Amino acid sequence: MATIVGAALSDVVAGIREAILSGEFVPNQRLIEADLSERFAAGRAAVRAALLELANEGLIERVQNRGARVRAVSLAEAVEITEVRMVIEGLCAAKAAERITGGDAAELRRIGEEMGAAVASGDVLGYSRLNELLHRRIREISGQRTAAEVLERLRAQNVRHQFRLAMQPGRPQVSLPEHLEIIEAVCGGDPEAAERAARAHLRSVIEALARTDPAAP
């Protein structure tokens, strides 16, 4: 019985998380326990536990006497999140450069080529997916599981700002050479260069985020 309850809880957590990441559940949207229970065919206890877990991840927030809602991340907080990512992704890039294998290097270079093709064809969504894949593979190659878990949580919190940034005109053309520099440094087994390249890329992301602010000059 415990296994069934645990599986139901993990399914509910994964389902709500995916709905938030895909934009189906939008910032400040109320999450009604009864609706979620029906949608995921789960008991109210499992739904409550899932909402608590997602609140701990920073994806939702509990409002006194009003239940749960999708947490809205401000631009200022999005910048702070990216500043933290800059440090941790720099670490992962350095570790990946130390651990890179021939097969890993071939895969990263192939991703880089596909990113270039996506930019050339104007495939913004395809480029965004490849962008996410590249960052994930570098984290995986780094072997830094703790860092990877932290980064995944930060990415989830920041997903809507990341989407807005991906849609910013000309952004892929700016970020492509930054990503290619990270790939070459990691594949070349140069930890210091890999960390510098990763940090430079995230610094560029912070500057671009600031330009998404309607109040910015």
Automatic annotation (TrEMBL):
- Report which superkingdom the organism of origin falls in: Bacteria
The record's section on Gene3D superfamilies has: GntR ligand-binding domain-like, Winged helix-like DNA-binding domain superfamily/Winged helix DNA-binding domain
- Residues crossing the lipid bilayer are none
Identify the SMART domains for this entry.
FCD (SM00895), HTH_GNTR (SM00345)
Keyword Translocase in annotation: no
The HTH gntR-type domain is annotated at 6-73
Q: What GO molecular function annotations does the UniProt record carry, in alphabetical order?
A: DNA binding; DNA-binding transcription factor activity
Query: Key word Ligase present in the record?
Result: no
Q: Which UniProt keywords apply?
A: DNA-binding, Transcription, Transcription regulation
Q: What is this protein called?
A: DNA-binding GntR family transcriptional regulator
What organism does the UniProt record list as the source? Actinomadura hallensis
Source lineage: Bacteria, Bacillati, Actinomycetota, Actinomycetes, Streptosporangiales
